[in-house]
Inverse folding.
């Protein structure tokens, strides 16, 4: 952290500011800036609220040298286990999570669950509570859908993940699912992030449409600060001027996240592209970029899906994607083929 | 709504699809498209979930001719009254809402409230629950802040507005405030929108950083669908590649919203620019663009603010902005100077 | 400028780097950074190519404290005179430039020119060479159009401006026009910028769809470096995710540019919005934001325009906009109503 | 193409419009729209200037059903040969083009050329004319650099590519290079596109920072319309709100372009990310996404590069990337592993 001081301060004023910093248990080094004096603050400055610094008389500006994410930035996080036997991150082989956008009925869910297991996916997704842009569109079967998800797990052995949009839904879903999903629309819902931070379940945290890498990491920090270290990050496309695809898949973000944190990172090519013709190529690209997994929308009859029909693929297409994933992962499984270890820490970025 | 049909359908298949549409109480007109047959659907199609149409066998694509916002699109909405005596929209003179980003203490709030009233603002803003990107930053005084807000109202007569981020906070805040604010980070939090839709209080709905005009209108529809018609829209800057300002203020959106709906539209130049040197010019521009009001962050000692210090202005600067607002509003108060009546309805846009 | 040095350098290595800086005629102050030693460079560092610094052995990174625009940043630039008697910037009243997107024929141009003069515009725009996204669309009448523009000037007394897209067109157009326009698509065409830098004619430089404020200023620097100080900047909308308007008008940029440079700044609401129903409100907003003028597309029969028909307005609408412009300008003509003097210089921004 | 007609037209007015369309050699089918009558135009409407339709009396709006790119859309384009023996696209194995951002000296270029050949690259890149945001930065050695490039070709056998920014540079460079590059900043420079359209040399066309897929295809159409069918498209990152990377690499665009056209598509991970730590992972991802090749900035001493130092990699790193590229390409070389044939044509997109 760098404090930019007022130009007109006397030497003793500046020394006094340095003392205040030191009383916080931090280091302070004074330097004469080009126009203004500066104080470099060393130590664990990032977990102090920044107004502690900005409100010191004589301080004009606080420059942070990285987002405040000590928990996310910790480098000793282990792979995360979901349900019985699914392991993600920490060097484990990439996994594929698949299932319908919405749970439409008991029958369609069980059919889809069997099909995605047969295709090689290791986990089932399915929407019970659906965030829809229009209030008139199908908003999910709610608790009933969660019951069907639990049945599907019993029948297939696949752990299940479903999105929650409120604390009330979180409490209900926790009875049924193996992993909680925070969707892109709620990544900035800090109350909800704090609430899942107190859960014992792993959390799939999706990047918001407008979130920078730094915003996403700080959202993860909210969860981890509550005590829940089982956070899986998910890139699902950001909003840009391009209209050919629903969003713009940002795979550089995957590589950046992998170098900035040891949390697992997966990719959702379905929401990123919004087009079923691009899912397979983007799945290949995501795994090649180093993602720890994929989450893909699958429907027995894609064009008949009650939501997100344009981006759903068939189980047959999923089978090919699972095979692609294994092939690419095998290609780079030797130590010598792995990407170099991270060269960056959060502290080297400027926010 | 236009349904694009499969090329290989027979005439009787197509006639059958038209019948299904008519059985929903809607009109159906069949036309031969350039490559695919089309069905134009007339009537109140937009409040049917779109999967009702997309799942009809033979339908390949559903093109909506506008977002589904019949409540927002209604043209007879009257001006909205907030607290005792503040009226916004419907041709009323533009108003200025001002106050601190965060309520920092009882003393600073009362001082600020007196100052903003003296400056000519008619309503007080103040954050009790603060959405902060970093979990380590100051997150507000909570209920205590709401109590101070109510005291400030007693002392100054100004109605008060404060942000809520969860249903629990909504319940608490409803005891104290005259208007509820849904912040940009929660515009896509549909559970919260539905909850404030059941409130009797007016709602200030801020556009999300990544929301299109259509997204914002549909968020308002969520609130109105619950029965609450007192929705005030707020443009507060969108995320773009430009880094000179915190966000990019989109004033075209103000003019567009004014032509698409009769809901009042206000502008938040503080969050849009993130820089106090641009607040006054953007306030002038917002009023000239036709905004019904402004919401501005004011602090007795801006650089000492516990949050958003870079964008807070002094009460003295606010006084000038209120004067500017009145002057510009007076300039265009004659009927002949008013902007023409809306030329668009939501149905003329394509989504 | 700050040079971030390698951590492993000895004190004498660092002193040696400081000496190299000083031999360039610049100041060098060594400070111990949090992790790496730093050298603050003072003096006219910004007009040295940055590789001069980055290539010094031991330098890891060069941080510039502002874009390199000493000519643009100079604060003594006077108002610019275009043709006979049109003055822009430097405190002059805002002006309105208007005319057709394309010069379609001699007759239509003369008719339009008379109409825009009658409406109160002081300068005529008209496209001779048209940059069109599709090569199959109308690309302008070329030199013939320039001849008509010169005729229109003779008949109306209005100075004329037209876009050039190549050095060849620049040479031809210079015979006919009073101001050269560099369009948004050529703002990064540095060869063309250098070429107009050698012209004696004023240059209207439009911001590219993806240009930051800093990019635009550096494009102006290219022109001024050639010796031509008569540069007028133009905000015309940037590309964002919003599709309701053709581009997103960024009026904060106008206020920012006015505080960063003394060059005149005008606004093109036609290209920014792409919709004739938004031109008047955005014109008002632009003038209220402090713009020195407007450039607007006008057509005798807007829906029949050969290019940009959706955004052309009638001469009658233009008359109202000119009146609005005068009223708003008069409102803030007193010294006490003027916006404060700039608080920023380029050097206070970080690039 | 769909023409939206004025509501108040009589049946005979509408029939008259249809006749006008038919006289252009196109088909016209009249349908009653929901509010306005419509005319569907069939046949080769897209190569008529769109004002031909918009200016017909009674026509209110022209909706194009795809960008006008008949040459780009043609499906029989063969692989492109560059210089002696380098083949790209049309099912050929992906290639790697590498070399310095700028040609800094004869010695460094020859050293780099030998190194990139040893690493397995098949073509040499090197900047002679450099578009630089700041006019004070190093702008290239010009013709001298081109001479060094030709020498490097003689010594290594690698064909060479270099950027041109003006018609004058195009004429000079054509004497030396095997492929001309149009950089991102000149993708909208239609005069230059038309000029390279008359060249016999292959053209590497980079996507502009703000270009949609449709814009890029239409830029290619400009070149092909001049007679030059040897166009290679290049994705190099677009401008978004994300600041962690220099630009945002849009790999969906690669897959989309491969389905929309048979032109080869390559990826520039250097400019897309601006960070050497992300080049290898993004190179893998690009090839996995289906790219026909990569163009990468390499420097013997990356941190000493005179331009783009942060993104240059070493020859050693390039060696690994070439190996990765071959492995991934081999993985999907069987017919059964290839991505499905395109499901889209340009005409199925809406602009």
């Amino acid at each position: 952290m760098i404090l930019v001081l007022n130009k007109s301060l006397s030497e003793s004023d500046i020394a006094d500011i340095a003392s205040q910093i030191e009383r916080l248990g931090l280091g302070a080094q004074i330097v004469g800036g080009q126009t203004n004096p500066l104080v470099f603050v060393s130590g664990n400055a990032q977990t102090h609220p920044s107004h502690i610094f900005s409100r010191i008389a004589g301080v004009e500006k606080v420059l942070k040298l990285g987002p405040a994410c000590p928990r996310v930035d910790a480098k000793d996080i282990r792979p995360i286990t979901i349900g019985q036997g699914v392991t993600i991150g920490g060097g484990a082989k990439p996994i594929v999570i698949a299932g319908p956008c919405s749970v439409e009925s008991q029958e369609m869910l069980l059919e889809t669950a069997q099909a995605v297991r047969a295709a090689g996916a290791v986990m089932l997704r399915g929407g019970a509570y659906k965030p829809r842009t229009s209030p008139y569109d199908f908003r999910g079967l709610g608790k009933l859908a969660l019951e069907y998800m639990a049945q599907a797990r019993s029948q297939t052995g696949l752990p299940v993940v479903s999105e929650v949009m409120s604390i009330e839904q979180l409490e209900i879903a926790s009875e049924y699912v193996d992993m909680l999903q925070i969707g892109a629309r709620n990544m900035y819902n800090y109350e909800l992030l704090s609430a899942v931070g107190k859960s014992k379940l792993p959390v799939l945290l999706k990047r918001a449409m407008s979130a920078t890498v730094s915003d996403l990491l700080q959202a993860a920090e909210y969860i981890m600060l509550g005590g829940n270290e089982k956070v899986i990050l998910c890139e699902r496309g950001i909003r840009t001027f391009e209209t050919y695809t629903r969003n713009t898949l940002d795979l550089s973000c995957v590589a950046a996240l992998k170098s900035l944190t040891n949390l697992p990172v997966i990719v959702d090519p379905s929401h990123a592209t919004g087009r079923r013709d691009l899912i397979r190529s983007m799945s290949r690209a995501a795994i090649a970029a180093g993602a720890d997994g994929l989450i893909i929308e699958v429907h027995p009859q894609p064009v008949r899906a009650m939501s997100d029909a344009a981006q759903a693929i068939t189980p047959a297409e999923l089978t090919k994607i699972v095979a692609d994933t294994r092939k690419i992962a095998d290609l780079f499984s030797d130590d010598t083929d792995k990407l170099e270890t991270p060269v960056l820490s959060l502290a080297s970025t400027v926010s």
Observations:
- Chain A touches chain B through 49 residues (CB under 8 Å).
- Residues 341-351 of chain A have pLDDT under 50 and may be disordered.
- Chain A has twelve helices and 14 strands.
